[in-house]
Design a protein that fits this description.
By secondary structure, the chain is mainly alpha-helical. The longest helix is centred in the last third of the chain and has 46 residues. It starts with 6 loop residues before the first helix and ends with a helix.
Length: 122
């Protein structure tokens, strides 16, 4: 893979609630823990904790907006995550193609062996 996999980044997006938060932020442009919690089946405090994880991974950034923090997606970091996912997908596609070729070779060898056995033992 050409892009190094960032374990913290993938740990952050590994949670479905955090992925939903990213979706909401991308749809809305920005949001607070309070406004985002209205769209999720979790508490405002849980949303704040999830946003803190996304912030540590660099996927979102916050700025003060009155008494709350306003969060926005860092599109550069998100693009980096997409590049990593693409690289991982390409790597696994290549591995699976190799496994398929090996399985097909084994299958052909077994078929030839069965044919030879059937020819000898009619």
């Amino acid at each position: 893979m050409s892009t190094a996999v960032d374990d913290d980044l993938w740990s952050a997006v590994g949670d479905p609630t955090r992925r939903r938060l990213l979706d909401l932020l991308l749809e809305q442009g920005s949001g607070t823990a309070t406004s985002l919690s209205d769209h999720l089946p979790v508490t405002r405090q849980a949303v704040a904790k999830h946003l803190a994880v996304l912030d540590r991974a660099g996927l979102v950034h916050a700025h003060s907006a009155g008494r709350e923090k306003q969060f926005r997606v860092d599109e550069t970091q998100l693009a980096r995550a997409v590049a990593q996912l693409t690289d991982v997908g390409n790597t696994w596609d290549a591995r699976l193609r190799r496994i398929k070729r090996i399985a097909e070779t084994i299958e052909k060898t077994v078929e030839k062996t069965v044919e030879k056995t059937n020819e000898r033992n009619p």
